[in-house]
Records
---
Amino acid sequence: MKTENNYKGLTPLAAAISLALAAPIAFADEETVKEEDIEKIIVTSQFQQSLINRIPVKPKELPFTLNIVDSDLLDARNFARPIEALTTLPNIFRTEDRRGTGGTGFLSRGFEAPILVDNRVQNNFRGTGARDSSFVERYEVLKGPASIASGPVGAGGIINTVTKSPTENSAANVKLRADQFGSTGVDFDVNAGELDNSGTVLLRVSGAYRDFKFDADEVSRKTTALRPVAIFNLSDATSVKASIAYTKHEVTPPAGFPLMENGDIPDGIDTGTFAGYQNSEGEVEDTLVNLEVSHEFLDNLKLTVRGSKQQTDFDYKNTSGLYNYRGDAGLEAMAAYPQTAVADSEATFLDAQLAYTANFWGQDQNIVIGVAHDERLFDRRFNGYGVDGPFSIADIDQPRYGDGGTGEPEPFTLNNSELESIFAETALRPTDKLTIVAGIRYDQLVQDTTNWRRGNEYLVSFDDSELTMRLGASLETSENINVYASFAQAFVPQFGLRSDSKPVPAETSDGFELGAKGSAFDNMITFQAGVFHTLRNNVALQDPNNTAGGPAFVVTAGEVKVKGVEFSSDIYPTDGLNITFNLGYTNVDVTEAGDDEITKPVFPELTGSLYVNYEIQSGALEGLSLGGGLRHMGERDGPKVTWDSQSIADLNFGYQINEEIEVSFDILNLTDELYVENTFQNTVNKLTGSAVLGAPRTAVLTLNWKI
């Protein structure tokens, strides 16, 4: 394979980005790129799965920060929820899902980071969604506004889940996992390859069944997942990709408990404490259908049409956490609210994109134009409830049983929204060392929210539009180093309940970033570093004055200023030795409070990680890898309390028995650090309600068999 053909036919920018940034070859000369990596890029690039996916731009040309966590890194970290490996990245912080539904959420640069699936926004209520780890090829984390690339999806950053696609060569993989709490699970991935020996039809099926156990015996989670995906190459010019992703979670969630007024964890509470109801339960079913058609009219003119439909059903009862609704400092009056609830959501997405490549100034120039339609429905219903308690802190471990509330669930919140978009992007190359990436997007949002509370019905409508733009440039200053600068705007729809029944307006933002990326010392070190500054307007934040038992209201900040730095690097001092270092600093400051009493979001100013791994290269122990590291989250200032910083240590051991079988043993949270994880949750009076602790020390044994 000749290197001059490496990027031929790459309509998505993403494939090149993803593989190159994930591997040590990230900013090497094209001559050093391995042939098998190029083949993987080309297969992936046929369809638009990645974040910046319409224009073929080499990785070092990108004028913004992008981190990649691929399947190898997910296996190396081996977290119970593999996506939690993102917590090792700079300025990324995990928020706990206290319903325990198999998913989890994240903040980026201080604010919620929406999670996409194959570059499309998905439903993600309480951590549900069609992104089971058995479906995942890699995660891509784009920092800062991403409105042109992916629609109005967040100004702090977005996380894209790139799912597995069929490839020509058949293969299969089975992963078995168990831990000391009794959890067991099996993941499988069968790539059938070409079904007709001509490459016309390719098929791949992934899935999993897991039975999770926890330190608290009453907590449990069972997950079933299945995703078939097929590619139909109808001709040399036309291809179709179709998939159905199904996930189901059955849970007894951990619920939660209130903290002391100073933020301390009460004596006698640890990860083995069960603060919920013995008969609490939740069931989630999520189905996502995707279809994508790609047609090349000419070698330099390509049309892509995509569509998806997602349905999520969430039923749960008696999952309330404990609250100190009286505000007693001694925690002698905790209460809960047994209830039954139902949440249904639907999402319909359609878009069409036309990509064109021309050659002038001696370089390829790229442009894409497109339209998109995004329709959402979210219907949440509750039945009546009473107050159960008070419970003494001394009796927190006593078995409790909820009555499920009274009557059938009745309407509580109904959200409807339609978003119509038109966009255009271009990558211009005046010289072979300068790339200018520009985009413009128009969004028209119509949003209706009906909520029922205190016996009244409120209909709040919001209709707005915005023209946003992105402009960035990347300059090659030496053979292996590029510097970049970018400006990007965002328009982000927001849902929520305000206590005054006013609509929650869409958020707008302007973001600036300067940085550099590249490699040094003959690719011994690869790095990317950036400095950012973003002004965000009409940011919806959780109301710090919510009262126990009431709805979770939001308030709106007039202006929020976010600034910081981040640095990521991979170092390869010698064969078999890898050092990964990440460091991020984010400062979030509410500069205009708007109409409400505002406190800034809870986010650690300092985040970072350091991991070292060494694989023995020869001798009797060849193939044995030894590693470990630290994840650090700095102090977090909340609206009522301040959480201490935390450093979590992990140890990782692996051994390649033969070409097909690898076994690993991992100890996560080695020092058994006790810390509160869900600082994104609502606050109640003077305390933080429904606090949930981070995972305790966990020993994991994994067998990975490649057939």
Note: The chain has a mean pLDDT of 84.
---
Amino acid sequence: MEPDPMAQDLDINHDTLREIYRQMSRIHEVDKAIQAGLSSGKFMFTYWPLTGQECIPAAIAPLVTAEDSMITIYRGIHDQVAKGVPLKGLFAEALGRVDGVNKGKGGSPHISDPSSGSMLTTAIVGAGAPIANGIALANKMRGTGKVTIVNFGDGATSIGAVHEAMNLAGAWKLPVIFMCQNNQIGEYTPIPEYTASEGFTARAEALGFRGITLDGNDPVAFYNGMKEIIESVRNGDGPVFVEAMTLRLGPHAGVGWSHLLNKEELAAAKEAWPVPATRKLLIEAGICTEEELDAMDKANAEEVKEAVEFGLASEVTGEDEMLLDVYGDPDVVPVRGQRTQRAAEPEFTGETKEMAMFEAVQDALDLSMQLDDNVYCLGEDIGDDPGGVFKCFKGMQSKWGERIRPTPIAEQAIIGCATGSALVGMRPVAEIMFADFVGVCMDQITNHAAKQRYMSGATTHVPMTVRMIAGGGIGGFGAQHSQSTEAMLLHQPGLKIVYPSTPTEAKGLLMSCIFDDDPCIQMESMMLTYALKEEVPVGDYRIPLGVAKVKRPGTDITLITYGWQVMQCLMAAEELAKDGISCEVLDLRTLLPLDYDRILASVEKTGRALVVHAAVEFCGLGAEIASTINETLFGQLKAPASRFGAAYAPIAYSKTIETAQVPNVGSIAARVRDIVK
């Protein structure tokens, strides 16, 4: 259809402008329905109104397809509507119903709908930006030409994750658009009270890519500006930061008008409100009659009404869903009294080669990349040269090219990128140099990667692996490079955690993690990285997750341990044998899923148990295991199960202090003698 003369004057096709208004009207009807439902008490959920920001996603919608990805925030219900998330599923989800797009398990702030390209919604301000990079990286590596848009408010520009993400996107020239919907109020604090910046585009320019300010209330100007930007990003010209100027008319949360604007400011904001303003423009330009727009609004209102009725009629998501979608396999969830029986790995009889742990890790990475083009690695300093601080990547960048990706020093950007690429089918292996640094990226690991399968009702999952080095046992590294942080991570449902004690297990567990469909963490002891060598299976070798292994049989007491403490326990068992005490040493290998069946079977045989770990004893994994043994085998025990971990202090720089504060051969043997006597 040819554009009419008046539409040409507006520099936009009249059908496109009609469609933009139709989407704005749909968004407005959704907004009205939610506010009415909350005000009447018909709805019970949290709502962060988008009133005033309808034009931004409505004008983007004609320029993208469902193949293009979007990430947004808890205030992004307007983004969801325009992206094509089904309204029936959207309302059912907000209401916590089984017919929601995520089975009612994500709710209004956690929408995921891959069918429309709405990949993730985060309730953490600014946290979506690093994840968007991962989706964009996957598209770049696959050469798809698809675009990723990540939406956030002006308040998110103060968050470090956004800066890390923008820096990475600029360095890697990723096809991503950082869409800052500048509604001029960061939650309850207006600009300029939280920043001295007069605008935000200069932040992109400082990082080496374009920053553009557009009027987010003008559908013609915003559409035309975004058309050029999306084409540029789609053509491989790198990221763009868009500052879409608008104004939030509602409160931070709840219903009604903003109480942060005075009477005059609110009146002016309503005058610029794009929904009535665009309606007026269409009529005055002769593109639509008032009757045509009335019919359009009525149709949208009817669609929303049907969606509301559908949502309210849907069954409330029940407690039977409680432990489903935490992992792909519900048996992974640790439940009191549950003794899941898992088969051990078959006895290996093939070719072997002597390797240290760092060589076994590299072998696992290299083989996994051969087996699956979706496997790639990212982390600090992993390129040639140096091939990783611990040499696990030596020579691999020369062999694998862009599938070995050295990153900036930015743990949030690293884990977010891994998460995003995993959402769209990649199998990233991210390295965090030391386990101590996990605190820097805890949000990305625990609030996003770990929870995404559950919050999305299994519409998405995150098959990524994080490798991290656990210091300790060496001396000289001190309090910020020597922690064993597994207890922090074990308290986060959704993660699987392994902790190998030998090169063979480092390879076999890592390969299983890489090809697992849940986010996995492999902790590798720095003490064992170079010191321990053994014959390691050559080729595709995997150790099933959740299977412990008896490293030394015994009859008097079971030492339950993992990581570098396995070596300490084995040496302690040798010493204790001289005293006539027979110790069974059980290497957990996998901390979650935990092999309670083999733990309990061993203790049933010996009647005594001591759990030993290098991590701080207080609130450590040992307390959980000992408690479970005592509850389950109370009548069969010869002594209460106990645990032995590090003293409650940061790991000392002094080798003398560290040796004393972490379980060692002598202190383990002493504890065993106390228990057995």
Note: The radius of gyration is 28 Å.
